[in-house]
Amino acid sequence: MLEILECTEYIELILLNKDARMISALEQYDPQIYELLRQEEVRQSGCIRLIPSENYISKAVMIATGSCLTNKYSEGYPNKRYYEGQQVTDLIETVAIERAKKIFKADHANVQPYSGSIANLAALNALVEPGDTIMGLALSSGGHLTHGSKANITSMFFNSVSYEVNESGWLDYNAIEESAKKYKPKVIISGTTAYPRAIDFQKFEEIAKKVGAYHLSDIAHISGLVVAGLHMSPVPYADIVSTTTHKTLRGPRGGMLLCREEHAKNVDRTVFPGQQGGPHMHTITAIAVALAEADTAEFILYSKQVIKNAKRLSEKIMEYGFDLVSGGTDNHLMLIDLRKRNTKGKVLAKALDRARIVTNFNTVPGDDASPFNPNGLRIGTPAITTRGMKEDQMDIIASFINTVAENVDKDTVIEKVGREVLLLCSQFPVPEHFIIPTTKNAIF
Questions:
Q1: Do domains 63-294 and 297-426 have the same CATH topology?
Q2: Which has fewest Cβ within 10 Å: 5, 58, 105, 360?
Q3: Is residue 244 annotated as a catalytic residue, yes or no?
Q4: Catalytic residue among 75, 353, 391, 395
Q5: pLDDT in tens, 5-62
């Protein structure tokens, strides 16, 4: 009888822990890593995250990312695997592919790239041969490393040339066309990593056709805005479109390729077996969930607010006397030029970080400083918008940035701003769910 009672109490204790504050396996078996993860979760909750390539993901996406799909090796593609036991993985990857094709209106989608960088390299290898000329936006003008930067492997495989923004920080399509006629590249890359203005992908297609080049478009930063119909889509105008699945798309950290049907076989072949082995099925599962979230009215409202917040934040920052590259923003990010304020981007980024405002220092067009200590600061609104912040909070954040910029060496001032940041963050808890479940999208 005592043994039965003890057993019953033990079961009740287990159920209580499961429903209340169950000690997780991680906490039990690796308390050090558990504590570090807990600290990171607290940090993300208690700071204003303005890095434009960062966001928060939903509980559903996070559960999928850490699911049992981590255990499965699925080398190959649906119905064409090199391992058995793919009854479920084939279905999941197919769902992810079909959801991507639907929301981007693409002929073909490959959801296996491990990252945006891997996706870009695969796209180039699908279109041209090593040694061929590629042309992308210069790193100093807001381009990405994988668009042909001399520091990246793309410049080792291909003959890399670049185009730049004009003195006002805008893309000059006439100048881009002249560069294309001069260099005669086999691939022209549109898309950026630090450009605050809308991109006319149709003009890039027209330029590419004039010189007989393929058009590769990298929309890693703006893919969520494209899905929401708030930025021109490159899908009708590019041979291949690459993107990450985080940032404005608000999914797990992964990559994706979209293309015209004529390039489908080459794209798939260059991803696997050309560059990768087995796909990360747990990430693909989470991508499928994120794509379903993006196919909702809630996501469109979120994306609209991202842009509203960016415009308001840029306006307020300029009112404080900061210079913005191109004089503002059309998308989710802005680039602050600090040269007139005699403050290096790295110095300000470090000071802001001490005040719980997370940004990244960045080069600006015409910057003669080292990329490790440049004259710019890049900020964006995807993460703070996910938390529910709106225009009024942008005014407050702009004042925080200005106060820190004027007091980069005054710890007492920075600490005071940090306390105010904590108070603001406490009013906007990080949400776990982004959409209201329905029979159409019951994914929570």
A1: no
A2: 5
A3: yes
A4: 75
A5: 444 454 444 444 443 344 588 899 999 999 999 999 999 999 999 999 999 999 999 9
Contact between 99 and 292 (Cβ < 8 Å): yes
Q: What is the distance between the alpha carbons of residues 411 and 276, in angstroms, rounded to a whole number?
A: 48
Give the pairing type, strands 108-110 and 255-259: antiparallel
Domain residues of the chain, as ranges? 63-294, 297-426
* Catalytic entry in 146, 154, 192, 244: 244
218 has catalytic annotation: yes
Asked if residue 129 has pLDDT above 80, the reply is: yes
pTM score of the predicted model: 0.91
CA distances from 160 to 71, 108, 165, 367, 394 (A): 40, 27, 17, 21, 40
CA–CA gap between residue 186 and residue 197 (Å, rounded): 26
Q: Find the catalytic residue in 93, 164, 218, 337.
A: 218
Q: Which of 34, 73, 114, 173 is catalytic?
A: 73
Q: Name which of 295-309, 316-330, 360-374, 377-391 the model is least confident about.
A: 360-374
Catalytic residue status for 75: yes
Name the residue with tokens 């703070």: 384
pLDDT of residue 11: 40
Concerning whether 419 is annotated as a catalytic residue, the answer is: no
CATH of 297-426, one of 3.30.230.10, 3.30.70.1070, 3.90.1150.10, 3.30.1360.170: 3.90.1150.10
Q: What is the pLDDT of residues 210-257, one digit of tens each?
A: 999 999 999 999 999 999 999 999 999 999 999 999 999 999 999 999
